Automatic annotation (TrEMBL):
NAD-dependent epimerase/dehydratase domain boundaries: 3-218
SUPFAM superfamilies listed in its UniProt record: NAD(P)-binding Rossmann-fold domains
Name assigned to this protein: NAD(P)-dependent oxidoreductase
Pfam family, one: Epimerase
Highest taxon, organism lineage: Bacteria
Length: 294
């Protein structure tokens, strides 16, 4: 396929471009970073610099594509003014899906977020109703980032109602690679009292990239939503025990498929996409959360 990957110079985008190239697809990467013209600098696929909040730019990069994988976004609400986060994320998604519908693109993969539930950056804090969290969990977004992701998924719903495009929204857990496992997850591995809104869940960037390839290659009709997270939690702790220790009975515990389960249920992705994660925090960290020598 001819695949457009937005946000291609970011952490997730770089891994995603490489995964599509490795799978034999023709890739055009899109980002705000200036192109590199120096001889000898190898960047997989073709690259186009574009601001996707501009409709004309979105149309120009989507034309001729078989699939669009929309990774680009401001990844959380605290580093930019709220209106910038919301406008950037929502308008880039709107422009791309509008262009994809008009050009007859067959598959759109929308990268959403686990924080869509709303408990990650709330002004009025709350806990999930149950764990592991799955695609049926109610959404209560408050902040501009979670709202932008919620509206993005609604744009996918609207697109499949009015056209033959097939859409998949992927909700990744917090994404890590070899550069930041220790700084991001090390303290949770050592001590689960370092609490996070995603209940000790995480995802390796290369497993996420594999899921995005499967989503783009999938023939699933309509618009499907999938959580993507590693099957274990950061540290390999007894999930039922630490959930009760730190949250008591405030979060309903649902059946687990393993003792060290993640706080996110990814059985739907395994069942419908055939996705099987291959990597773990254990590939990068020791039991004290320190980086392994590589």
């Amino acid at each position: 396929m001819k695949v457009v990957v937005t946000g291609s110079r970011g952490k997730v985008g770089r891994a995603t471009v490489q995964a599509f190239v490795d799978a034999g697809h023709e890739v055009t990467g899109v980002d705000l970073v200036r192109p590199v013209f120096d001889a000898g600098v190898v960047v997989p696929g073709r690259y186009v610099m574009a601001d996707l909040t501009d409709a004309g730019s979105a149309y120009s990069v989507v034309a001729g594509a078989d699939a669009v994988v929309h990774v680009a976004a401001i990844p959380q609400p605290t580093g930019n003014p709220p209106h910038v986060v919301f406008q950037t994320n929502l308008m880039s998604t709107f422009n791309l899906i509008e262009a994809a519908v008009r050009f007859g693109v067959t598959r759109f993969v929308n990268v959403s977020s686990e924080s869509i539930v709303g408990n990650f950056f709330p002004e009025r804090p709350f806990l999930p109703d149950y764990a592991p969290v799955d695609e049926e969990h109610p959404l209560h977004p408050q902040d501009p980032y979670a709202l932008s992701k919620s509206f993005g998924e609604q744009l996918m719903d609207a697109a499949v109602r009015r056209s033959d495009i097939r859409a998949i929204s992927i909700r990744p857990s917090t994404v890590h690679n070899e550069d930041n496992y220790e700084s991001n997850l090390g303290k949770q591995v050592r001590d689960p009292s370092n609490l996070t809104a995603n209940l000790w869940s995480y995802i390796d960037v290369y497993d996420l990239a594999d899921a995005l390839v499967l989503a783009a290659e999938s023939d699933l009709p309509g618009h499907e939503v999938f959580y993507i997270a590693s099957p274990d939690n950061a540290g390999g702790h007894d999930f039922a025990e630490i959930l009760h220790r730190y949250y008591g009975d405030q979060i309903e515990l649902r059946p687990l498929d393993r003792v060290d389960a993640s706080g996110i249920d990814t059985s739907k992705a395994r069942r419908l996409l055939g996705w099987e994660p291959k990597r773990s925090w254990r590939d990068y960290l020791d039991s004290d959360g320190r980086a392994l020598e590589r």
